[in-house]
Amino acid sequence: MFGLANPDRFMRFTRPLTPVLWAVAGLLLVVGTWLSFTAPEDYQQGDTVRIMFVHVPAASLGLMAYGALGVASFFSLVFRHVLADAAARAAALPGAVFTALALVTGSLWGQPMWGTWWVWDARLTSVLVLFLFYVGYMALRSAIDDEARGARAAAVLGLVGLINLPIVKFSVDWWNTLHQPASLLRMGGTSLDSSYLAPLLVMMAAYGALFGAVWLTAIRAEVRRRRVMTLRARRAMEA
Fold it and tell me: Could you tell me which residue ranges the Cytochrome c assembly protein domain spans (predicted)?
């Protein structure tokens, strides 16, 4: 893993891996979508239960992406590692998209189940805060003209945002919330029927592969961008 911290090694290693992840993500999305639409209706929720196959993976990847952003921010801030900073920057946009998708699908699912589009529930509010951390991270980087200073300031914000991750995860256990508790990963095993468990797991794997593909593609693009900027600066100095 630490050998891949070298940008040249990273670029060589991820060159064949990135298209494989894109292909796996596409295949899993097709299979997962087919399983989601062929799953039976829920006896209480009817067809609205199918929102789960989008909402749950999106919410999970929103958390995982921010975890990746936070860890990369730590290595960037402490060790001033360029590739770690590129990894943190690359995780922000897809993580924000996954979190926004979780918020939207959660509202669509909550309206028929709860009778309202939004409540200031602990889980919903903490996920909204997670989305705002993503937006704040990206806005802070773009607001500071000095790229190095902007990267350090954003890394600090990224580390602060890690505090919110356990709040999102355990909010339904710590407070009396309207949001249902975990049904997939919980003590005693899952409470989901096998007809719902299979498509959910496939969709979670698809979202994971999709994030990996987007993340690696974005990191590679960021490495190339920095190399071009360095080359231009070198030529300007020589001129």
Answer: 22-179
